[in-house]
Amino acid sequence: MLALFAPLVAMPANVAVAQDDKLLEDFRSPRLAAKPRVWWHWNSGQISAAGIAADLDWMQRVGLGGYQAFDVDLGAPRDLPPPSGPAGLLMD
Fold this sequence. Notes:
Structural class: alpha+beta
Radius of gyration: 24 Å
Helix content: 40-55%
Mean pLDDT: 78
Strand order of the largest sheet: 1-2
Number of helices: 3
């Protein structure tokens, strides 16, 4: 049984450091497949080209790897006017 673990114990220190460096580099700059993804809900089609562009820019800026978009029909009217000011919280 000890013979199975002997190669691990006898691993040169520079190999262990190289593996640690690779792990750290992969953590700092993960490949696309390792980056998080999000669900992106478009509620009742209330989206705009400008809003989509802003969201995509943000997703790229924060390092997301992708998204799954859903147009969720919640029964809300599809012809709402754009908001006239900043959105408030429900408790305001």
